[in-house]
Design goal:
By secondary structure, the chain is an alpha/beta fold. The chain has 4 domains: 121 residues, 2-Layer Sandwich (Beta-Lactamase); 58 residues; 163 residues, P-loop containing nucleotide triphosphate hydrolases (Rossmann fold), CATH 3.40.50; 128 residues, Helicase, Ruva Protein, domain 3, CATH 1.10.8. Helices cover 45% and strands 14% of the residues. The protein is built from 18 helices and 12 strands. The protein has a 5-stranded antiparallel beta sheet with strand order 2-1-5-4-3, with helices on both faces. The chain has a 5-stranded parallel beta sheet with strand order 7-8-11-6-12. A hairpin with a 3-residue loop joins strand 3 and strand 4. The longest helix is centred in the first third of the chain and has 58 residues.
Length: 506
C-alpha cells in the first residue's frame, strides 16, 4: 500500500495537526506506518507498527530508525534509499526487504516512502509505509519449490517413460527379428526336410577315418572355423554335421549353403539377405543364411566356387560378425560358427588369383581332410551293410545275403566317386535284386584307372569320372538313368561342375 498524503503547506501548527491526523486516522490503518524527521529519527509510528515489530512507543519515538531494536533496522539498502528521499525529493514504492529480526524472526517487507513537506519547508518529514508480505512470499516460494520439485519429478517420470518406451521398442524389434529368424529357419528346414544325410553318421573303423573323428572331437567344443577338405563324395558334409552335433550349438539347425549350385546373381542375397525392392522381384524382405544361422552353425559347401567379388563380404563376417543386407545400410550383427568345405586345392586357387589369400588364411585355421574311399578300403564292408540296410528299408526290400564275389568286387574297385558312388551302385543293386541276395549290376571288375593323388589333381579325377559317367549315359544329364542320378548330384549342381571343369558335349 502506498500512503496518500496531500502536499499541503504546514508550519509547527500544521505539524501538530498532522500528528493528530496520524493518531486519529492513520493510526487505525492495518499497515505499519512510521513518520521520520529529516534526521531519520522516528517522530511517530502507528499501532500496527508497534504490534508487528513488538516494540513500544517509548522505545521508538525520537530514536534513529537504524538504531531501533538493537540496530535491527540498520539495513544497508534501506539506509541508501531513505537518505535519497529528502535531498532528491524522490520516492520508492514496493521495495522488497528481507531481514532477520531477533525478536520476531525473519520478515519479508514491501517498503513505500515519500517526503512530506510544507511550502515554506519549515518542517520536512518522511512517511514510511511497511507491508508485511512474509506469509505470502513464503507461500509463493513454497509453491515455486513445489512446482520445481513436481517439474523435476515429471521430468524424471518422462525420462523413465521414454526409457521404458525405448526398452519396449527394442524388445519388440528383437522379438520381430527372432520371429523373422524363426520363420526363415522353419522355411529352410522345410526346404531341407528331405536332406539325404540328415540321419546319417560317419561309418567306418579305419585308421584314416578314426583320425578324422579324433579331429572332429578335438574341435567341436569351440567356435573355431573349420575347413573340411576332400574329394567329391567323401562325406565332407557328414564331418560338418558331426562337428555341429557335438558343439554347444547342437540344439539349433545346421544351416547349409552350396556355393556351387547358386547362380552368381543370387548367392549374395542367399547368404546375406535383402530388403524389399532391393532388386527386381524382391517383393519382401528376405533373411540370408547368415541370419538364419545366428546362434547356430553355417556350412558353406563348395566354398571354392564363391565368386571373387563376394569374398571380401564373407571375410568381413568372419572377422567382425557383421554385414548389410542388399538394399540396406543397417549393419546386422550375427554370432555364426562357420564350417567350410571344398574339393579344390585353395592354395592353388590363390596362386591363380581366383581366391583371396586373406580369406584362405582365415578359413584354414583348423583343416580336416576326409580321406577318399580308396584309402580306407577296410571300411567298405561296414559301409555296404549300412547302405544296404538303409536302402532296403526305404524301398521295402529285404537283402540278407551279400555274395563273397560281390564284396570282393566292391573292395577291389577304385571308387573315384567315393562313398557317394558306392551308395548309388548299391541302390541300383538293391533295385535289381529280386530275392534276398544282392545282385550287382554295375561293371566294376576293372578299375577305371590306377589314379593316385600324385598323378592327378582332385579336379582331374572328378573331371574324368564325370566324363565317364556322361559317356555311359550317352550324355543324358538329368532324368531317369541320367548322369545326375548316377552321380547322386542335383541337376543344377552337375551342370555347374561341368561348366567349372570345362566339360562340353562333343
Amino acid at each position: 500500500m502506498q500512503p496518500i498524503i496531500k502536499k499541503s503547506g504546514f508550519g509547527k501548527r500544521g505539524f501538530q495537526t498532522f500528528i493528530e491526523v496520524f493518531d486519529n486516522i492513520l493510526g487505525s490503518i492495518h499497515e505499519p506506518l512510521v513518520v521520520l524527521d529529516s534526521d531519520l529519527k522516528v517522530v511517530k509510528a502507528n499501532r500496527s507498527f508497534y504490534q508487528t515489530f513488538s516494540v513500544k512507543p517509548e522505545e521508538t519515538e525520537g530514536i534513529l530508525i537504524y538504531d531501533l531494536g538493537i540496530r535491527q533496522w540498520n539495513i544497508p539498502k534501506l539506509r541508501e534509499l531513505l537518505e535519497d528521499i529528502l535531498p532528491q525529493n524522490s520516492i520508492f514504492n514496493d521495495f522488497e526487504v528481507e531481514h532477520q529480526f531477533e525478536t520476531i524472526g525473519r520478515k519479508i517487507m514491501l517498503l513505500n516512502a515519500r517526503r512530506i513537506y510544507s511550502d515554506e519547508k519549515q518542517i520536512q518529514l518522511i512517511l514510511l509505509a511497511i507491508e508485511d508480505v512474509t506469509e505470502r512470499e513464503y507461500y509463493k516460494r513454497h509453491l515455486e519449490e513445489m512446482v520445481e520439485k513436481r517439474t523435476a519429478e515429471l521430468r524424471v517420470a518422462r525420462e523413465k517413460a521414454e526409457k521404458r518406451k525405448l526398452i519396449a521398442e527394442t524388445a519388440l524389434s528383437e522379438i520381430k527379428e527372432l520371429k523373422d529368424q524363426l520363420e526363415a529357419e522353419t522355411a529352410y528346414l522345410q526346404e531341407e526336410i528331405k536332406l539325404e544325410y540328415n540321419d546319417e553318421n560317419i561309418v567306418g573303423q579305419s585308421d584314416a577315418l578314426n583320425y578324422v573323428l579324433y579331429k572332429v572331437e578335438q574341435i567341436a567344443g569351440s567356435n573355431t572355423i573349420v575347413l573340411v577338405l576332400g574329394e567329391t563324395g567323401t562325406g565332407k558334409e557328414l564331418v560338418a554335421r558331426a562337428i555341429h552335433g557335438l558343439s554347444v550349438r547342437k540344439n539349433r539347425t545346421l544351416v547349409k549353403v552350396n556355393c556351387a549350385t547358386l547362380p552368381p546373381n543370387l548367392i549374395e542375397s542367399e547368404l546375406f539377405g535383402h530388403e524389399k525392392g532391393s532388386f527386381t522381384g524382391s517383393h519382401s524382405r528376405h533373411l540370408g543364411r547368415f541370419e538364419v544361422a545366428s546362434g547356430a552353425t553355417l556350412f558353406l559347401d563348395e566354398i571354392g566356387e564363391l565368386p571373387l567379388e563376394l569374398q571380401p563380404k564373407l571375410l568381413r563376417v568372419i572377422q567382425d560378425g557383421e554385414f548389410e543386407r542388399l538394399g540396406s545400410s543397417r549393419t546386422v550383427k550375427v554370432d555364426t560358427r562357420i564350417i567350410a568345405a571344398t574339393n579344390r586345392n585353395l592354395e592353388e586357387e590363390v596362386r591363380k588369383g581366383s581366391f583371396r589369400d586373406d580369406l584362405w588364411y582365415r578359413l584354414n585355421v583348423f583343416p580336416i581332410t576326409m580321406p577318399p574311399l580308396r584309402d580306407r578300403m577296410e571300411d567298405i564292408p561296414l559301409l555296404v551293410d549300412f547302405y544296404i540296410n538303409k536302402i532296403s528299408k526305404r524301398l521295402g526290400k529285404i537283402i540278407e545275403i551279400i555274395p563273397v564275389g560281390v564284396m570282393t568286387t566292391l573292395q577291389n574297385y577304385h571308387w573315384p566317386g567315393n562313398v557317394r558312388e558306392l551308395e548309388n551302385v548299391l541302390e541300383r543293386a538293391v533295385i535289381n535284386s529280386s530275392g534276398p541276395k544282392l545282385h550287382l549290376v554295375d561293371e566294376l571288375k576293372k578299375p577305371y584307372k590306377d589314379l593316385t593323388r600324385a598323378q592327378k589333381t582332385l579336379d582331374e579325377v572328378e573331371r574324368d569320372y564325370i566324363l565317364r559317367v556322361l559317356e555311359q549315359t550317352r550324355w543324358k544329364v538329368s532324368g531317369k538313368n541320367g548322369a545326375s542320378e548316377t552321380l547322386g548330384l542335383d541337376r543344377s549342381t552337375l551342370r555347374a561342375r561341368m561348366r567349372k571343369l570345362g566339360i562340353v558335349k562333343p
